[in-house]
Design brief:
Helix content: 25-40%
Shape: globular
Number of strands: 12
CATH topology: TIM Barrel
Strand order of the largest sheet: 8-7-6-5-4-3-2-1-9-10
Structural class: alpha/beta
CATH superfamily: Aldolase class I
Number of domains: 1
Order of helices and strands: EHHEHEHEHHEHEHHEHEHEEHEEH
Strand content: 15-25%
CATH architecture: Alpha-Beta Barrel
Length: about 300
C-alpha cells in the first residue's frame, strides 16, 4: 500500500476535541464525548493544539492526522493545518464533510502544500436520505458531496471511508460515488464497538455470516481504486483475493502511529493500544489465518458470544 517511504514514518493522531454536529448511529466517540461533558472538559484550546502539534513534530512525526469530534467546527483549524504544513509535516483531516466552506478555505490557504494534504470523508450510503438517517443530519450527504467536489477541484487527495454496519445498504453503490469523485482509496471498516452497550452493539454490528455474505456479493464487481478492509477478523471476510487487509500489510504494521488522547500529555502507540481491545474466538487456534489475524473488538463477544 505504500505506507512507508525511504525514511522512518511516524503518524501522530491529534484529537482536537469531541464536539460534533452529527450524531452517527455507530459513532465510536459517543462514550468519550459523554465522559468529557461529565468532566466539563473543553476541546483543546488553540495554544494547546499548537503545543500538541509542536510536540509531535519534535518527536519525529512526518504526518499529523487531525481528528475529533468534527475538526472543521474549529475556527482555527486552517491556522493549525498551515502551521503543520509549513513545518514540513504532512496532514490528514478526518471530517464528516459538513463544512464545505471551511474545506474550501483550507484548500485555498494551503495551495503551496496541496500535495502534502489529504482528507478522509465518510459516506454512509449513496442515497442522501439513508446517509442522513445514519448520521442523523438534515443535509449531511449533500454537504459531504459538495466538500468532496471542492477537494477534487483543488487537486487534494481523497480517502473514502465506509463503516460497515447493519444500517449500510449497498457497498458497491457507495464505492461508485467515491470512484466518480476521484478517491485514491476506499477503507471499509468494522465498527469499533469497544465500550458500547450490548444493545447498541446488536443494533449496529454485523455478525460473521452477514459480513461474509456482503463481501461475497461486493467482490463480484470490479473496482478502480484500492479497497482496504480494516478491523475485520479474517474469517469475517471470506476467501477474497481482491481486498487489501490492512492488518496483514507489513508496511502498515511497521508504521509508527502515536495517538495523542484528548487533553493528555503522553500519546499511546496505536498499534499496541489497538491490539489490547481485540479478542479471539476459541476456534481461532485452528484457523490458517490465526497468526496474521488480530481477532474481533472485545465487546463483540459480550453481545454475540464465542
Amino acid at each position: 500500500m505504500g505506507y512507508l517511504e525511504n525514511y522512518r514514518k511516524i503518524e501522530s493522531h491529534i484529537v482536537l476535541g469531541y464536539k460534533c454536529n452529527h450524531y452517527c448511529r455507530h459513532c465510536v466517540v459517543q462514550v468519550k464525548r459523554t465522559r468529557a461533558m461529565e468532566e466539563n472538559a473543553n476541546d483543546l484550546s488553540k495554544d494547546e493544539a499548537f503545543k500538541a502539534i509542536q510536540t509531535a513534530i519534535n518527536n519525529g512525526a512526518t504526518k499529523i492526522v487531525f481528528t475529533g469530534g468534527e475538526p472543521t467546527l474549529r475556527e482555527d483549524l486552517t491556522d493549525l493545518i498551515t502551521y503543520t504544513l509549513d513545518n514540513g509535516c504532512r496532514v490528514q483531516v478526518q471530517t464528516n464533510g459538513s463544512m464545505p466552506e471551511k474545506i474550501k478555505e483550507i484548500c485555498g490557504c494551503c495551495d503551496e502544500h496541496l500535495d502534502m494534504l489529504e482528507f478522509m470523508i465518510p459516506l454512509h450510503s449513496a442515497n442522501a436520505e439513508r446517509h442522513d438517517y445514519i448520521c442523523r443530519s438534515n443535509n449531511g450527504f449533500n454537504q459531504a458531496i459538495e466538500s468532496l467536489k471542492i477537494i477534487l477541484h483543488a487537486g487534494v487527495r481523497i480517502i473514502g471511508k465506509i463503516v460497515l454496519t447493519k444500517f449500510t445498504d449497498s457497498l458497491t453503490d457507495i464505492c461508485r460515488v467515491y470512484e466518480k469523485i476521484g478517491a485514491s482509496s476506499i477503507i471499509i471498516a468494522y465498527p469499533h464497538c469497544v465500550s458500547f452497550p450490548i444493545d447498541v452493539i446488536r443494533e449496529v454490528d454485523l455478525e460473521k455470516k452477514d459480513t461474509e455474505r456482503i463481501f461475497f456479493e461486493f467482490f463480484k464487481s470490479e473496482y478502480h481504486v484500492p479497497i482496504i478492509l480494516q478491523a475485520f477478523p479474517r474469517c469475517f471476510i471470506g476467501e477474497q483475493t481482491k481486498a487489501i487487509i490492512q492488518e496483514e500489510q507489513e508496511d502498515f504494521l511497521a508504521l509508527e502511529i502515536v495517538e495523542h488522547q484528548f487533553r493528555m500529555k503522553d500519546g499511546k502507540q496505536w498499534h499496541i493500544f489497538r491490539k489490547l481491545d481485540k479478542r479471539k474466538f476459541s476456534y481461532c487456534t485452528s484457523c490458517r489465518y490465526n497468526n496474521n489475524c488480530e481477532g474481533i473488538w472485545k465487546d463483540y463477544q459480550k453481545a454475540y458470544g464465542n
